[in-house]
Amino acid sequence: MGNMMIQPTMYFNLRHVPMFYGPYFITNVSHDITINGFETNFEGMRQPIFSFPSIDKLVMSVNKNLLKKYETVYRKKQTQQEAQNATNQTNNSTSTNPFTPGDESACEGATKYPTLTFVDFEDTRIPVNDVITYLNSITRYSRNLRSYCLGVGYIANKGNLGSFDCTNNNINGVLSNNLRYQNLTGFTNGQVCIKATTGGGEINAPLFSFENKENTIKFFIEYNNAYNTLINNLVGILTTIVNDDEKLATALTYIYLTTWNSNSGVGKTATEIKQIVDTNISNGTIKQEDFDKIKEKMLSAVIKILA
């Protein structure tokens, strides 16, 4: 019996046929209706992944829109499941905060904010799901900036997947030894001295302290708000990447490496920033594997932040 619902741009999945099993993209369909029966024949091209070709017909556009809606629903359910798993993991693990209390006298000489009070060191644990929920609630900020905030949080915290284990609610590990945050100290409740282990040994460094996760998130987003247009411009020139989420994650990786991890991209255009990072990768200053790891964390963040 034929099936009139089968049409080009659909998929069929071939099973139990060694070497040929897997998804096939339907390219041609023919229906043969006779007095004695109804037959449908179709041809397909094997696909390595479930992806659509370039849109050049209305029906293809409709199918892509339907798939996009399904993808959104699926990701929402996936995020909820991950959040539950993360909560369970958080409740059953010890703190992985990489910092310990430091020598305050050493930090007093390093801070750029001498009038900002030094407060007591506190280990704080913030469930990742709480951060995601809050970021998805503050839609007055662009998805670019909200995804960036979560992505940098993933990079700064090397602990378990269920929580951000940090010092004084400072999710992104923002130090107070740089004057670039001088207009944002109103979001803080002081600073704290931390001791960190680096390749050169132990160092003491001043770290901003925040009363809650909301203030540390607002602090980060307000600082990076100036880069929102630049992020969009980077997305626009990444023409070789098809997936929109991957484009944004790649753009955020370029921004992170040139404006957060260093100052090499400050005042530069999107094209210049891309060239700086690409050049550093080619000459070995930045390892490709390190770039890919940062991009992977940014992509995880982008997927969890709603548009």
C-alpha geometry = elongated
Average residue-wise pLDDT: 87
Number of domains: 2
Strand content: 15-25%
How many helical elements?
A: 9
Low-confidence blocks of residues: none
For this structure, the quaternary state is: single chain
Based on DSSP secondary structure assignment, what is the total number of beta strands?
A: 8
| SSE string | EEEHEHEHHEEEHHHHH
Instruction: Write down the Rg.
Output: 25 Å
Could you estimate the helical fraction of the residues in percent?
Answer: 40-55%
**What is the CA-CA span between the terminal residues?**
44 Å
Query: What topology, given as strand order, has the largest sheet?
Result: 1-2-3
Report on the biggest sheet. 3 strands, antiparallel
What structural category do the secondary elements indicate?
alpha+beta
What would the keywords be for this entry?
single chain, alpha+beta, 2 domains, three-stranded antiparallel beta sheet, elongated
Short description:
The chain is α+β, with helices and mostly antiparallel strands and 307 residues long. Helix content is 44%, strand content 19%.
Describe the protein in words.
With 307 residues, the protein is an alpha+beta fold. It folds into 2 domains: 1-51, no CATH class; 93-304, no CATH class. The protein has 9 helices and 8 strands. It has helices spanning 58-91, 104-110, 128-137, 143-156, 213-224, 228-237, 244-260, 270-282, 288-304, and strands spanning 11-14, 22-34, 37-46, 100-101, 123-127, 163-167, 190-198, 201-209. Strands 1-2-3 form a 3-stranded antiparallel beta sheet, with no helix packed on it. A 3-stranded antiparallel beta sheet has the order 4-7-8, with helices on one face. The protein has a two-stranded antiparallel ribbon with strand order 5-6. The chain is elongated, with a radius of gyration of 25 Å. The mean pLDDT is 87.
